[in-house]
Design goal:
Elements lengths: L5 H12 L20 H5 L3 H7 L1 E3 L11 H7 L4 H8 L3 E3 L12 H14 L5 E4 L1 E3 L2 E2 L11 H7 L2 H17 L4 E2 L24 H16 L9 E7 L20 H6 L2 H9 L4 E4 L18 H11 L5 E3 L16 H9 L4 E2 L4 H13 L5 H17 L17 H14 L1 E5 L12 E6 L2 H12 L4 E6 L6 H11 L4 E6 L6 H12 L4 E5 L13 E4 L5 H11 L28
Parallel strand pairs: 1-2, 1-10, 2-3, 3-6, 6-7, 7-8, 8-9, 12-13, 12-14, 14-15, 15-16
Antiparallel strand pairs: 4-5, 11-16
Helix pairs in contact: 3-14, 3-15, 5-6, 7-16, 8-9, 8-16, 9-11, 13-14, 16-20, 17-20, 18-19
């Protein structure tokens, strides 16, 4: 079996690509010509080329950790052995107990170095660090409040800076591809999976922010402080009422509606030179009446993305372990169908070995041409080269993350995002709460964080956590506690779907105490209660709770404006927000 050396890799790419490298300042950078890595592809076996198209998970926190999950899923003991045996083009990191890749920055850096050492061709190492509710790596990395918070702040330079900080910190850990930004236009308030992951329900605002973040993540060609961005989820997951992790959602947009709404952020990402675009496991009958999910649909991937939008970068699937892509075909058929549709990278197949074998068999049977495989391999290698990851260099053992200036930038984004939707009694405008405050409602960590920050500003605080669906006893307890304080701050999350949370807010308002309700995730909560004061933060992270305390104490003047239309019994339009 041919072993592709790093010397050959470096020489072939640099010698034939540098002359074709476009200006970093071009509005739409043209990537190096495919012939730039032809010599690399010619030196690979079919199996090696097919392996380059797969991005897999591994189990464990170090390259040589023996983990039972690797034996179960891959037939080997360690992450390094997974890479050596299957020769994937990429690896994705997760922070959950199933994969257990993430602990400390030095640990992640060491894992990246170990996996790269085990690979014959430099890996794309990826993760989902959208910030906000989809954040795989927490503190000490800088934590921004997420996409919709940036949409509320309406500062594209802040969006670009946030992405740049995230890119630098990910790259310090050896991560070279971030599955962000979310380019979905969240036009359905009942969307269970996108919500605040989207910048806005306004296609133009979403497009502006998406382009800014692509620029921030990717910075310039050959930068070793940049990552490849991945705009997701094409052709647009913002108008679904179902979650593609558990079902196959249907979007009933016409082609014209898609062009006016969902296509705009993807067009902006392409114009900004985005390295990769992730597909959605959704059906769009008006575009492809076959019933196939977009990931497996040639009319969507080739017809809309490649031909209509003119995209020639890497197309990657969403996870192939999700229910939305597995309802109509076997796990062995799915990768072949995705490649036929026009996809390049295949993310997290259920059984990596079987998936690779299926693609190799399809080529040998003439179902897929080797030329088609080469086309995708060239795109993947080109992406690695453009971000300075081909060849790859080891990352230092002690990454620099969460510096004071970066933390200050995250706080500034959160401060700018806070939206005062309502303040009938002027409680928020007054800039000071009474000396004793009850902090109650959703989220044990979130209520505690806000109470701590109010105490730091001189308030006496009491915390009563009632959770996402409080029972009568919990509601009565919170109302009783309100009797002994001067004001109440109640946090909500998904109140529009939780009648018990609405009852809690209404009962607190009826107590006669000044009540400030705070929607700590989706701003749609504010349309479902008549509380006299409503704030929206778009995030329940620590920086967002600090911002609430700053606004309530008068340290920060609120300037956020709703980035979505809020329907409900008390509706508010996109762009609404009080300031003074």
């Amino acid at each position: 079996m041919h072993r592709l050396s790093r010397t050959l890799l470096t020489a072939a790419v640099v010698a034939s690509s540098t002359a074709a490298l476009p200006s970093a300042h071009a509005a739409r950078p043209e990537p190096p010509a495919p012939q730039s890595v032809t010599s690399l592809v010619r030196g690979m076996s079919l199996e090696e080329k097919v392996g380059q198209l797969f991005v897999t998970y591994v189990h464990g926190q170090s390259a040589d950790e023996v983990h039972p999950g690797n034996l179960r899923d891959f037939g080997v003991d360690t992450p390094a052995q997974v890479v050596a045996r299957y020769r994937p083009g990429g690896v994705i990191y997760f922070n959950n107990s199933s994969y257990d890749n993430i602990d400390t920055p030095p640990q992640i850096a060491a894992l990246s170095n170990g996996l790269q050492q085990a690979s014959r061709v430099p890996l794309t190492i990826s993760t989902d660090q959208e910030m906000g509710i989809v954040t795989r790596i927490g503190p000490p990395l800088t934590q921004f409040p997420g996409s919709m918070a940036l949409g509320a702040g309406r500062d594209e330079r802040a969006a670009e800076r946030a992405a740049s900080v995230t890119a630098r910190e990910l790259r310090a850990l050896g991560i070279t591809q971030n599955f962000a930004p979310d380019a979905d236009v969240n036009s359905n308030p009942a969307n269970p999976v996108i919500g605040v992951r989207s910048f806005s329900s306004d296609p133009d605002l979403a497009a502006t922010m998406v382009a800014a973040q692509v620029r921030g993540y990717q910075q310039r060609h050959l930068s070793r402080s940049a990552v490849s961005a991945a705009a997701k989820h094409f052709p647009g997951h913002g108008d679904t009422a179902d979650d593609s992790h558990t079902s196959l959602p249907t979007v009933d947009r016409t082609v014209e509606q898609w062009r006016e709404v969902d296509a705009k952020p993807f067009r902006a990402a392409i114009a900004a030179g985005v390295d990769s675009i992730m597909t959605a496991h959704i059906r769009m009958p008006a575009i492809d009446p076959s019933g196939e999910p977009a990931t497996l649909s040639k009319p969507v991937v080739t017809g809309l993305l490649r031909e209509e939008l003119g995209y020639d970068g890497v197309v990657i699937t969403d996870s192939l372990a999700m229910a939305g892509v597995r309802q109509l075909h076997t796990d062995a058929e799915i990768p072949v169908l995705a490649l036929k549709a026009g996809v390049d990278q295949l993310l997290m197949p259920v059984k990596l070995g079987e998936a690779i074998d299926a693609v190799v068999a399809a080529v040998r049977a003439g179902e897929l041409s080797e030329r088609r495989i080469d086309q995708s391999v060239l795109r993947v290698l080109r992406m690695k080269f453009l971000r300075g990851a081909l060849p790859v260099l080891p990352v230092p053992p002690n990454p620099v993350v969460g510096t004071p200036d970066r933390l200050a930038q995250a706080q500034e984004v959160a401060d700018r995002a806070v939206t005062v939707v309502r303040d009938d009694a002027g409680v928020v405008r007054a800039g000071r709460l009474p000396g004793s405050v009850l902090v109650t409602g959703w989220g044990e960590a979130t209520t505690a964080a806000l109470a701590e920050r109010l105490r730091a500003r001189g308030a006496t605080t009491q915390v009563v956590v009632t959770g996402s669906a409080p029972n009568e006893q919990q509601i009565a307890g919170a109302v009783s506690s309100a009797g002994g304080v001067g004001a109440v701050v109640v946090l909500t999350n998904a109140l529009s779907r939780q009648p018990a949370q609405r009852a809690l807010v209404d009962r607190l308002v009826a107590s006669g105490k000044p009540v400030v309700a705070v929607a700590v995730q989706n701003p749609y909560d504010v349309g479902h209660s008549n509380a006299q004061a409503w704030l929206a933060t778009y995030s329940y992270g620590a920086v967002a709770m600090e911002s609430v305390a700053r606004v309530l104490s008068g340290e920060v003047r609120p300037g956020g404006r709703l980035p979505v239309d809020v329907p409900g019994p008390v509706a508010y339009p996109l762009g609404h927000g009080l300031s003074w």
